[in-house]
Design goal:
- The chain starts with 5 loop residues before the first helix and ends in a 10-residue tail after the last helix.
- The chain contains 3 helices and no strands.
- The protein is mostly helical.
- Helix 1 (6-22) packs across helix 3 (42-57) and helix 2 packs across helix 3.
Length: 67
């Protein structure tokens, strides 16, 4: 994302993954919880969490060999 460093992006994604796993993968973590834990500004957290959520809810692509 433009204007957001890769260090911040990595930190937010790492925290989001950790919180999601800690919650049993039942519910996506909130932007506020990720923002506070990662210690980033709200705008960055909102933009990055939107991207992270898309990755979590994207349908899995399964390769199938067709004879």
């Amino acid at each position: 994302m433009e204007g957001i460093s890769s260090e911040i992006r990595d930190r937010v994604f790492e925290i989001a993954d950790k919180l999601y796993a800690e919650g049993g993968r039942d519910r996506l973590p909130t932007v506020d919880k990720v923002r506070r834990t990662a210690r980033v500004d709200m705008n960055s957290a909102s933009m990055l969490m939107k991207e992270w959520r898309k990755q979590q809810t994207a349908p899995a692509v399964v390769a199938v060999a067709i004879p």
